Amino acid sequence: MNRRVLIAGASGLVGGRILRLLLTDSSVGEVHALGRRALGITHSKLTMHRVDFRNLPRLPSVDEIYLALGTTIRVAGSREAFRAVDLDANLAVAKAGVESGARRVALVSSVGADARSPIFYSRVKGELEDALARLPIDALVIAQPSLLLGDRESLNQPVRVGERLATYLTAILRPLLPRRYRPVEADAVARALLSTLPSARRTTTLSYREITRFGSSSAR
Q1: Beta strands in the chain (DSSP E)
Q2: 57-78 pLDDT, tens per residue?
Q3: CATH code (residue 117)
Q4: What is the DSSP annotation of 120-172?
Q5: How far apart are alpha carbons 180 and 199 in whole angstroms?
Q6: What mean pLDDT value characterizes the chain?
Q7: How far apart are CA 133 and CA 179, in angstroms?
Q8: Which of 16-20, 39-43, 134-138, 154-158 has the lowest mean pLDDT?
Q9: Angstrom distance (rounded) from CA 171 to CA 38
Q10: Rounded Cα gap, residues 145 and 186, in angstroms
Q11: Can you say how many angstroms the Cα of residue 159 is from the centroid of all Cα atoms in its chain?
Q12: Number of domains, the chain
């Protein structure tokens, strides 16, 4: 096999794990990473493309797309800026990748994603899922994790106080929490998507139960 893969969001918590796992996968021949800045990683398989997500160039021919672009309203600065990243940029990459031959797409979404949700964050996530499902592709795999666990400091990402507090509280309240709302390791999300997409058919949604089969410590 000589899979050609495109990833957007490789500087993030889940995207970074996806990238590293792709580079060590013997079935993957090419990895094309899209971003606004260089990743600081070199590898014989890896080609970095510095892009403006509002005006993407013609993308290289690929087989699979991994979408891991994401932010928060606080970091983005406004709802409009958040939507521009989490919906518009991801969808633009998917459409451009499909135009370049991709027929399989994987997405890092969120628990509760629903285009009809009264919660803005969940509504945007749901709108993206619905838009991707309408693309002319063979398979769409969507991971819907709750709180993501991982080392953000090593990625030079700001430490999210809210996440630390939520992690502490969920550890105490764990027996009372529905499984789908329990924290999961970013590494488990990455492995779940990578293991599922190559052989998936149509649309597959990975929730807590499916994700934690791939090594999350929160499954123990």
Answers
A1: 3-8, 28-35, 46-50, 64-67, 104-108, 139-143, 148-149, 184-185, 202-206
A2: 999 999 999 999 998 888 899 9
A3: 3.40.50.720
A4: HHHHHHHHHHHHHHTSS-SEEEEE--SSEES-SGGGTPPP-HHHHHHHHHHHH
A5: 24
A6: 88
A7: 25
A8: 154-158
A9: 36
A10: 9
A11: 19
A12: 1
In this predicted model, what pLDDT tens digit does every residue of 97-153 receive, in sequence order? Answer: 999 999 999 999 999 999 999 999 999 999 999 999 999 999 999 999 988 886 655
Relative to beta strand 3-8, strand 28-35 is: parallel
Q: What is the pTM assigned to this prediction?
A: 0.87
- The pLDDT value recorded for residue 162 is 56
Please, what is the angle between helix 120-133 and helix 90-99, to 10°? 10
If you average pLDDT over residues 14-30, what whole number do you get?
A: 95
d(CA 93, CA 59): 9
The domain of 53 spans 3-219
Confidence check: pLDDT of 180 > 80: no
CA–CA dist 179, 208 (Å, integer): 6
Place of tokens 């994401």: 70
Return d(Cα 199, Cα 5) in angstroms, integer: 14
* Residues constituting the chain: 220
Contact call for residues 117 and 76 (beta carbons, < 8 A): no
Cα–Cα distance measured from residue 9 to residue 13, given in angstroms and rounded to the nearest whole number: 9
Residue type, 176: L
